[in-house]
Amino acid sequence: MKEIVIKTDRLSKRFGDFIAVNEISFEVQKGEIFGFLGANGAGKTTAMRMLCGLSIPSSGTAEIAGFEVYKQAEQIKRNIGYMSQKFSLYEDLTVSENISFFAGIYGLTNREIKEKGEALVEQLGLEKETKKLVGSLPLGWKQKLSFSVAVLHEPKIVFLDEPTGGVDPVTRRQFWDLIYEASAKGITIFVTTHYMDEAEYCDRISIMVDGRIAALDSPSKLKTQFKAGTMDEVFYQLARGAKRGD
User: Fold this and answer.
1) Rounded distance, CA 144 to CA 155, Å?
2) What is the pTM of this model?
3) Does residue 58 carry a pLDDT above 90?
4) What residues have CB less than 8 Å from 195, skipping those under 6 apart?
5) Cα–Cα distance between 83 and 151 in angstroms, integer?
6) pLDDT by residue (tens digit) across 201-242?
7) Mean pLDDT of 27-54
8) Which end of the chain is less crowded, N or C, counting CB atoms within 10 A of the terminal residue's CB?
9) Distance (Å, rounded) from C-alpha 151 to C-alpha 25?
């Protein structure tokens, strides 16, 4: 049996009378690429913040990498990587400085920083760019560098919040190659995206509607269940059903 690295049971988050995340329950296995989909305001980001140990749930339970979200948030943070939609590195530092800074935060030794940093730069083909400010790099390179830094310490899980927003299709595909490589090493990928074609790249996906998980399965099984040819059609049916109150 595969190891479960994310487990939630009726996890909820309320802000006053507003329920942002409403009793979501699911499990994610080690090395899995798990897509977390939903329209703006569906509760994706709020749920991700709870899973990362950045926000305390209102009710329910969750374990991340074996640690409990209420009492062990700091241990969770040390065992995960994170990349936000708006890019996670410092644009006024060089490529090399960013790698060293974040590797140090993740607790790598000076020797590990040197070895892993050199390997990362070579992998991305940035040997001639190490002394350039990150702000001067094209968006696609920034995002690939940001992801590579997020997994430099080999976390158990990496959380990606809309990681390919605003880049061209070729760069998006290259970014997903990096995701596949990390998954092959046993790193679990938890990714939010609004690109439905990217949902097809995931092992399983959950689709949130109004704070609840409206559907959860592999892309192929969801398309069969909803008699749809694409994930766009699945998402449309769920959104339409929510508007009707189905």
Assistant:
1) 17
2) 0.90
3) yes
4) 164, 172
5) 10
6) 999 999 999 999 999 999 999 999 999 999 989 988 987 765
7) 91
8) N
9) 26
Confidence of residue 189 (pLDDT cuts 50, 70, 90): very high
What CATH number labels 29-89+155-244? 3.40.50.300
Q: Give the list of residues 6+ apart from residue 174 with CB closer than 8 angstroms, or none.
A: 140, 144
CB neighbour class for 79 (10 Å; exposed up to 12, middle 13-18, buried from 19): middle
The amino acid sitting at 194 is H
**pLDDT tens-digit profile of 148-181?**
999 999 999 999 988 887 778 888 888 899 999 9
d(CA 116, CA 96): 11
Across the range 80-101, mean pLDDT stands at 88
* Integer Cα distance of 189 and 145 in angstroms: 16
Reference 9, options 21, 22, 23, 20; nearest CA is: 23
Write the Ramachandran bin of 65: left for phi over 0, alpha for psi from -120 to 50, otherwise beta.
Answer: left
SS (H, E, C) 67-93: EECCCCHHHHHHCEEEECCCCCCCCCC
